[in-house]
Design a protein that fits this description.
Number of helices: 5
Distance between the termini: 22 Å
Shape: elongated
Helix content: over 70%
Order of helices and strands: HHHHH
Number of strands: 0
Strand content: under 5%
Radius of gyration: 20 Å
Structural class: mainly alpha
Largest sheet: none
Number of domains: 1
Amino acid sequence: MNTTLHGIATAIDRISGAVGHAASLLLPVLMLVIIANVALRYGFGLGLVEMEELQWHINAVVILGCLAFAYRDDAHVRVDVLHARYSPRRKALVELFGGVLLLMPFVVGICWFAWGTFTYSLSIGEGSPMPSGLPARYVIKFLMFAGFFLLGLQGIAQICRSILTLRGAAVATGERGPR
């Protein structure tokens, strides 16, 4: 069982890492779009709806693509001020119960509603309400579903790692797990 849990967690970690890394590569593109938008607006008095929407869309891709990546690397915001003082076993318990009771129901709810929003948007061929805006707004709505689905998968990986820690399985150096 330990080998199976470890394999699941490792596979999900790889997927989250690949998606997060790919999404993070769009940050320089986002900066260029913002700089071009500002230069066009304030340097030439030319405001383009397409540039504004492109900026929002790239930002959405980066954020949604990096949700699971940040969770995997423990780079998310922690509210628990006591966490740093916990033993690895207690951290694993917090991660396990937090994942099962808080994260997973939240992710399932968001995915449920995001999927409905995406399918409706796709069925009507939703685009920008602005005449010169970007088409295919349903693509961004799908990314909302995909980003939270991947976060849910990463939650499963964290739950697997927590179970392994609680079972006394050694977590090798460099692997993600409760800290």
